[in-house]
Design a protein that fits this description.
- Helices cover 18% and strands 35% of the residues.
- It has 347 residues and is of the alpha+beta class.
- The strands form five sheets. The protein has a six-stranded mixed sheet, with no helix packed on it.
- A hairpin with a 3-residue loop joins strand 11 and strand 12.
- The radius of gyration is 34 Å and the shape is elongated.
Length: 347
Amino acid sequence: MKKNRYAYILMMMAAAMVTLAIDSSAQAQSQVQPTQELTLDAGKPVAVGIGTKVATILHFPSEITGLFGYGLTDGRAPGTYHYHHPAGSGVLSLRCLAPDKEAFVTAMLGDKVYALQLRAAEHPAVIIRLREPSEEDDKRALLAKPISKEEITERRLDYSTERLLNFLKLGKNAHILRHSLPKLYEGAQSRKVELRYDDGEVSTVIREIIRFPREDTFTFIVEIENRRDDAIGYDPGSMQIKVGGRLYPVTVADASGFVEAKGKALAHVVLKGDTEGARAHLSIKNDFQLVISAYEAYGELPALMTEYQEPMDEAELPPNDSPPSAGLLPPLTNSASSISSTGRDSK
């Protein structure tokens, strides 16, 4: 009787163990996906979900010639992701040992380098096939993407005359306003340069550049030199800023339109956005040049401010006891100059 009882107990225990094993296997299988396909990106890490209970197999498009990453372990040292890589293959087996940890892995495929961002996945794929980007992927990345009305408003550039003239004043009077109204120049970049454009008779030298990144706007202080034996006249609105092989018409210019024979004249110009009214995203580090595309001989000239003068040091400026209001910028000071705009309307 006792033997039968013990036999019955052993039989029930065996059945329970088999049931538990089947349940565990079914649970593990329910937590994984069969396969997944991801595209490698040379410009940024690709996020990859790794299993914690089962290994995830990464299949690269070619042989892995190098593998680096903090947290990887082959079992001989502590780590957060256990890996195995058969030599000479494009296969990498990974299992996450610490679900709350991520790891960045760099894989070399010959002369190409790709980065992976490993993280624990609740329902990982058993096999992940990694492929290199194709021409179709590159074209797809260039397709337009929808944006919200708020983003459109934020990105839109303000071409109103008042705004453009304010930038002209900020550039022209920077040596004073930077001291008295520093908030007007928050985020602005400046650069003292000597960037020359010379056609043999008339040359221009950009002396100073100020960039307002938020508004995608530049102001330039330019010295124009006439080496001809006669005075010249030109249209300030026809001046262009040359950057590499591209020409951008100036948005607004404060220039006399005249330069006396063997003389010099000063000009202040503003460049905002590109030729279509969108952002040009130009860096202040570019080698800009001011181009006067057309000029002709001219008669008697008015008195002009002719040469660029270095701004005073802050120590030489008068004390800032009663700074002017931020909304009241000083007027243009050169009465002989003319304001010329390309005529872009506000968009």
